[in-house]
Structure formats: structure tokens, C-alpha cells
Q: What sequence folds into this?
């Protein structure tokens, strides 16, 4: 099997190797000509220093012009080849895109993002974020406005953008943070995630900044300061910020005010390039009691009363924008289902497979109905997709019932979602995974525990 796969790979990359050799030949000629020109220049300068006018004249008026003409012809030839082939493997000159890509890899700063037409990107920021974050247009608008203020230079450069996301679980607060990181920093993993439920005691501030000298963990640094030193362009996500101790909120207040903080090791950490997003369930009872999915002004004021009762005024005033998330509607859940299914197909592509999911209307309705709850929002959807779709699909792929470049057809059966096989299963010992059960798990009214006899 391995030899067969190796042969297929060699056959696939054969044309690429041939194209690379052809392109390399032209580039090597140009490189050799430029190297020859450098050597002639050195010889000419040496002859001029020795007052060898005959040799210097021969080089300056004959040899060097000839090689310069040759270089010019080769550069035109290589440029034409690159122009005719947009997917050229080799480039004669390093352009801005290559420089930006290299700088981004070395520094962790998303220069490639900044090198694009950022004005158009920022103007259309709402439309881009709303493709992934559904039913939260007000939240997306508030975030977009704050980011545009920052990028246009109208916001205080020393204060990092900060947001307080309020709403029910599963309404999209964390999802918006992830998509914002992907939009701004070209990587959804550019998130420093901190669970504030673990920062409830008065000593927790040392976890953010690092342990004091002489204490355990001093060399490791803080869970906030060390990641920001390594990757200053990040989204800092503080989950359940209402559970953090007052000492932790004091540290956050300093960061939001000055854009910097000193770690336990004495390093001054610049926080002004990060984006701070705090999530909270404060006022959730008012959102649950409200009618409709969209939060009205009265409910929003009740939620803000709960926020003002919990946080100090100076802390609230340092936050760039406070956003109350809507409850997700059934229409929004339908869009989220399509987004999740597209993500699964993208995973197939990333793994070198081309498999399309085809769900009938009943199966889609089943996911929309059972993947949503009033209390948890869209949280049950991911678990439902994994249990009823992905687990079964994984087994069918391993058994060869669905293969590459095929459709995975999903319908609604009597017990839930069913995936229709495209082929007969290969020889597998475990034929029915869904109904498999260990016999020892079954109840037996007549069985009783017997202690093993002792020798």
C-alpha cells in the first residue's frame, strides 16, 4: 500500500519537477551572468588602481557592456516566462508579498493583512464578520466601529480596544471573538483565552502577571503577560469576567487605561496592540424573561443595571463598547447549521479529500430543531453534529462505504440521522458500531455479586 501511494505521489509531482528544472535553468543563467558582471567590475576597479589603462579600457568598454546586454536579455526572457505563467515556482525578484510573508512569520505580526487593501476591508467589516456570526448585527456593528476608530488613528493609541459581551450561553460571544482574530490577524488561533472563574481569589492577579520572585512558577511568567510578549497582536478573551477577583479587575483597569503592564519579572509589556474581549452572563435572567429574540431597550437597560451593580464605574468607563447579544432565532440556527456543514467540508479538503455533505430537508430541519435550546442557544448543535453525523461518517469512511470524490447523503430515519452508504462495507469485524454494547453493561436481575474464593 505504501509503495503504491509513493508511486502515485511521484507520478503526481513529476510534472512539477520538470517545470521546476526548466524554470531553474533560466534563473541559473541569469544568476551566473550577474555573478560574472560583479567579477568584471572588481577586475576593472583593480586595473584602475594599478593604472593599467589598457586592461581597464578593455573591461569598461567591451567586456562589461557585453555582459550587461546579456543580463538585460535574460531578465526580459525570465520576466516574460513569469508573466505567461502566473503559478511560476521561482521568482526573479523578491516582491512586497514575499517580504510581508517572511516578516509575518518571523515577528508574529500579520503584515500580510496590512499589506492588502485594508481600507476596503475595514469598510466591509460587518459583511465579512456576519458571514460567520449570525443574528448579532448590533454586536458586529459595535465591534466594527471600534476597530475602524482604532485603525484610522482617531482612538487613543495607548488604550487597546476593549469590549464587554453580555448575553446567554451559545449566543455567539466567543465565536465573534474568534472570527475577529481571524479577520484582523489572519489567524483564528491568535487568541489568548483566560477563564476568569479560575481567578476568583485575591492572589489571582499573580497568575496574570506571574508569580513573585522566590515563589513557584516565577520563571514561567504570567498567563497574560507571557503570551502578549510572544504575540502582541492578539485577541485577549476573558471568559466570565464577572467571576474575577477585584484585584484581577484592578490589573485589567490599568491595562485598559495605560495599554501596558509590568510583569512579575520586571518586563514592561505593551498591550496596546491587543484587543480585549470580556464575556459575562450578567443580566441573563432579564434576557430570558424578555419577549422575542431581539433585545429591546428596556431589557438592555435592566442588563446594564446588573453590570453597574457588579463592576466599579471606573472599570465600566474604560471599556470601548458594551454589547448585549440577542437570543438566537430558528432562522439564525438554520444559517449556523450551513456554516458548520461547510466547516466539515473544509476539513475534508484540508485532509486531501473531496467529500460533499448532502442533507435532505428533513435532516436539516432535525439539526435546526434539536441543535438549539432556549438556555444554551446553538451550543447543542456541535454535540449533535458530532454524535449523529461525524461519528457515523468516520466509521463509514474507514469501512470504505463512502470514498473520496463522492457525496455523503444524509437523511432522517426513525432513530435520527442516517448516512446512506455508496458501497458495500469492506471486511470489518465490528459491523454495527451504533448498536454495539458490552454484554457486561446489561442489567441482570438474577445476577448477584460473588466474591472470588481465596486460596
A:
Amino acid at each position: 500500500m505504501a509503495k503504491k501511494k509513493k508511486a502515485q505521489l511521484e507520478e503526481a509531482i513529476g510534472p512539477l519537477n520538470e517545470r521546476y528544472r526548466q524554470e531553474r535553468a533560466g534563473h541559473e543563467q541569469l544568476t551566473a551572468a550577474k555573478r560574472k558582471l560583479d567579477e568584471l567590475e572588481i577586475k576593472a576597479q583593480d586595473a584602475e588602481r594599478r593604472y593599467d589603462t589598457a586592461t581597464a579600457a578593455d573591461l569598461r568598454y567591451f567586456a562589461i557592456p557585453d555582459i550587461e546586454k546579456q543580463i538585460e536579455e535574460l531578465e526580459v526572457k525570465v520576466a516574460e516566462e513569469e508573466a505567461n505563467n502566473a503559478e511560476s515556482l521561482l521568482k526573479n525578484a523578491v516582491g512586497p508579498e514575499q517580504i510581508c510573508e517572511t516578516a509575518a512569520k518571523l515577528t508574529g505580526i500579520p503584515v500580510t493583512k496590512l499589506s492588502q487593501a485594508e481600507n476596503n476591508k475595514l469598510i466591509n467589516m460587518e459583511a465579512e464578520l456576519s458571514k460567520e456570526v449570525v443574528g448579532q448585527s448590533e454586536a458586529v456593528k459595535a465591534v466594527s466601529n471600534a476597530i475602524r476608530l482604532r485603525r484610522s488613528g482617531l482612538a487613543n493609541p495607548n488604550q487597546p480596544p476593549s469590549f464587554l459581551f453580555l448575553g446567554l450561553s451559545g449566543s455567539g460571544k466567543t465565536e465573534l471573538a474568534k472570527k475577529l482574530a481571524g479577520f484582523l490577524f489572519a489567524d483564528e488561533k491568535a487568541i489568548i483565552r483566560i477563564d476568569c472563574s479560575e481567578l476568583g481569589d485575591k492572589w489571582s492577579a499573580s497568575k496574570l502577571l506571574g508569580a513573585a520572585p522566590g515563589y513557584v512558577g516565577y520563571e514561567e511568567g504570567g498567563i497574560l503577560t507571557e503570551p502578549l510578549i510572544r504575540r502582541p497582536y492578539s485577541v485577549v478573551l476573558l471568559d466570565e469576567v464577572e467571576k474575577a477577583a477585584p484585584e484581577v479587575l484592578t490589573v485589567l483597569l490599568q491595562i485598559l487605561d495605560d495599554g501596558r503592564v509590568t510583569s512579575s519579572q520586571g518586563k514592561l509589556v505593551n498591550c496596546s496592540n491587543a484587543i480585549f474581549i470580556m464575556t459575562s452572563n450578567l443580566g441573563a435572567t432579564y434576557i430570558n424573561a424578555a419577549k422575542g429574540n431581539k433585545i429591546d431597550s428596556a431589557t438592555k437597560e435592566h442588563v446594564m443595571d446588573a453590570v453597574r451593580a457588579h463592576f466599579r464605574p471606573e472599570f465600566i468607563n474604560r471599556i470601548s463598547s458594551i454589547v448585549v447579544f440577542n437570543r438566537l432565532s430558528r432562522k439564525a440556527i438554520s444559517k449556523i447549521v450551513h456554516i458548520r456543514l461547510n466547516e466539515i467540508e473544509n476539513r475534508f479538503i484540508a485532509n486531501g479529500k473531496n467529500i460533499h455533505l448532502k442533507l435532505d430537508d428533513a435532516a436539516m430541519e432535525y439539526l435546526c430543531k434539536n441543535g438549539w435550546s432556549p438556555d444554551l442557544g446553538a451550543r447543542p448543535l456541535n454535540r449533535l453534529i458530532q454524535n449523529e453525523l461525524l461519528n457515523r461518517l468516520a466509521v463509514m469512511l474507514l469501512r470504505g462505504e463512502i470514498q473520496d470524490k463522492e457525496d455523503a447523503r444524509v437523511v432522517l430515519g426513525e432513530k435520527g440521522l442516517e448516512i446512506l452508504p455508496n458501497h458495500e462495507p469492506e471486511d470489518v469485524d465490528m459491523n454495527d458500531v451504533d448498536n454495539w454494547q458490552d454484554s457486561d453493561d446489561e442489567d441482570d436481575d438474577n445476577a448477584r455479586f460473588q466474591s472470588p474464593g481465596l486460596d
